[in-house]
Amino acid sequence: MTSTSHTLPAPVALRAWPLPSAVPLLALAALLAAPLVLTPYLSDLVQKIVIFSVFALSLGLLVGTTGLVSLGHAAFFGIGAYATALASSDAGPGSMALLLPLAMLGAGAYALFVGALSLRTKGVYFIMVTLAFAQMAYFVFHDTHFAGGSDGMFLTYRPVLAIAGVTLVDLELPLHRYYLAAGALAATYALLAVLQRSRFGHALAGIRANEQRMRAAGFNTYAYKLAAFVLAAMLAGLAGFLMASKDGAVNPELLSWHESGAVLMMIILGGLGSLRGAVLGTVAFILLKEALSSEALLGALAGRWQLTLGVTMIAFVALMPKGLAGLHTQWQQRRKENKHEH
């Protein structure tokens, strides 16, 4: 990657939430305390939200920061999950120190191949190429028997992390799985926050704003985009490892375009270009899905939750064009407009 002495453009994709920076720390504290007061069902639901938040943050790096809309991101999520299951042993628990890097590197390796080809296209062509590669990966796992075919496969033993014979993390224990997922979310959030403020992050934001200008300034935009694509895939692979460890099973639906579409809706709902938005969008999307598919709340209408969820999403996007993360800014703008009118 080469650059000149030109000043990097301001990171236009990174919108700050006008609230104190302590908010993420308070949210993390609440997340860590949650298992102490929640029922097992709610604790499992929160863990699912946490894992999908990692997944959403990984896609946010592509869509919100770099301006690369991908409909095949679930392929890396599924590859991370399958790498965990395939490398696990039936004879005893596998080592997390081996399985976690394997899941992330497996997803990153496929992303390097996909990105090297797909990043030579732009716009709708890039979207379709990423979708095509994701479907190829989906059918490899769905139509072949080495990974269980359409039924998927189970993990006989969940991974453990042991040092000198002392087990530090045992993912057979629900509390260990929960806190590992929470730690992964905190680490992913912190990594992306640092990245956004770095020279690399500013370069990605500049590419999103005007790639031609960045090339004219001497930046190898292809290399920057490929690096972002691979990093996003590795973080999706991390989420895949967490999901496989949580459920103790994997299936081809983890790689389907439905999963890619769902996580894309999460970051749009939360607000593109915002780390908080990716997390908020994930929370809102999963809770909406849970509520709209609950017969206790909606009765017979729960059987048509896809329809009601679709209508709800349309309403949210229409009423909140900047997403949940932009609500405060949107409210302030309306207050100013009302003052000017009076």
Automatic annotation (TrEMBL):
Q: Which UniProt keywords apply?
A: Cell membrane, Membrane, Transmembrane, Transmembrane helix
Which spans are transmembrane here? 22-42, 49-76, 96-117, 124-141, 178-195, 222-242, 263-287, 307-327
Tell me what topology the record assigns in the membrane: Multi-pass membrane protein
One Gene Ontology MF term: branched-chain amino acid transmembrane transporter activity
Family matches, as Pfam families: BPD_transp_2
Q: What is its main location?
A: membrane
User: An example Gene Ontology cellular component term from the record?
Assistant: plasma membrane
Its localization reads: Cell membrane
Name the record gives this protein:
Branched-chain amino acid ABC transporter permease
Q: What is the lineage of its organism?
A: Bacteria, Pseudomonadati, Pseudomonadota, Betaproteobacteria, Burkholderiales
